[in-house]
Amino acid sequence: MNKIKKDLSPFFSIVIPTRDRSDLVKSLIWSVLQQSYRDLEIIVCDNSSNNLTQDVLNKFKDDRLINIRTGNLGMSENYNVGINSVSGKYLMCISDKGILKKGALSYLHKLIITKNYKCITWALDNFVYPGHFFKSPRVSESRTLESSYLLKFMLGSDYRSYDHAPMHCTSCVSMELVEAIQKKHKNLCQAQNPDYTMAAQILLSTNTIYNLKENLVILRNVSSKDGYGMGYSLARKTQESRAFLEEHADWIKDTNRFSDIPIKNCTFIVDLMLRDTYKVLEDNNINPDIYLSKKERLISYYFFTYEEIISRTALGVNMKQEFVIWVEALNKESLEIKYQVNKRKRTLWFVSLKAHFKYFFKKNVFTLYLLDKLRPIRYKNSGILYKNIEDCYNFNVIQDHIK
């Protein structure tokens, strides 16, 4: 493991965990080195199974780039290697599928110096290869959010609340907070998934975060149908996702003990988020009831897992088995919980109808062929077309101003 120590502490430490995506990491590093703000270090944790990423890294001639070769580590372990090597004042973790927008660091630096925020978060825009850029919906104004407010909704299984939480690609965090967590728990990223444990650890260490209306990072997707990362595989129940769950069977077995998650064995994607969040609360001796009662958590859990069944059905995924499991679990709950869940469930009847209509079309060979032909036309009319990711970077600039 080779690491180059810098004499002076940079303002930003940008940690890039990567595995077997040399083409992606090359343009990510390029987007960081192109920034007008230059007081930074880039720590690349190369967990690859081959030497292609090393070949890419060796072509960069910049002493701000720190090359750490790991290999055969779990995802959280690889993140922690980089985070524990940081020497800067503020941490940003950006996975290899991200691109830092032009002007983002200058904007962040001025915001931090002016307002002294300890944790800043934002949403993600999307770039779909070969060249379509999509701006995600943004909040109308930047705002301060209570950490307890976010934890309440996270424990309520509202997966959308994680969009505002401090995770990779979506946050900049003071190393004061990170070091306080490391002093207590050794590592920032715990258990299975670095994202959800990182978010929960940071939210427990600060009363507030600052959520930007500006989206500072672009997330890249393989195509209009697929993305990089396990999230897409899990949503579609691919062979890769099945292998992932089998590989982590011990973790699943251990976290089945959380009674607050009534359906066991990671039947739903939201289960992954919840298990790591509950594990962090357990490690910090915090009762989740202080954020949301168990009854409210259960009602919300059944509602959002039902919503997940609908959304994945709309993708063309057969969710009949998951629905049977969901019904069997709900039938074991109290009459009050069943009543409240079914009351909320009825608000999704039209969404469910549309999802099953989409499922029918996506399972029909002829209509699936038509959808594949029409998809590029729809993307052409809804996104902005760029020649490549570099053009997208140059035409999407974060203005250096603070309101």
The best one-word shape is globular
Series of secondary-structure elements, N-terminal to C-terminal: EHEHEHEEHEEEEHEHHEEHHHHHHHHHEH
Report the end-to-end length measured between terminal Cα atoms: 44 Å
Which residue ranges are poorly predicted, with pLDDT under 50 across at least 5 consecutive positions? Answer: 1-7
Structural class of the secondary structure composition?
alpha/beta
Rg value: 22 Å
Strand order of the largest sheet: 3-2-1-4-10-6-11-9
Q: What percent of residues are in strands? A: 5-15%
**Largest β-sheet summary:** 8 strands, mixed
Helix content: 40-55%
- Tally of DSSP β-strands: 13
Average per-residue pLDDT, rounded, comes to 91
Q: What's the number of helices?
A: 17
Task: Give a nutshell description of this structure.
This protein is of the alpha/beta class and 403 residues long.
Secondary structure elements and pairings:
Elements: E1 12-18, H1 22-33, E2 40-46, H2 52-57, E3 65-69, H3 75-83, E4 90-93, E5 98-100, H4 104-115, E6 119-121, E7 124-128, E8 132-134, E9 143-146, H5 147-155, E10 171-174, H6 175-185, H7 194-205, E11 208-211, E12 217-221, H8 230-236, H9 239-247, H10 249-255, H11 269-283, H12 294-314, H13 320-330, H14 335-345, H15 349-363, H16 365-382, E13 384-385, H17 389-395
Parallel strand pairs: 1-2, 1-4, 2-3, 6-11, 7-12
Antiparallel strand pairs: 4-10, 5-12, 6-10, 7-8, 8-13, 9-11
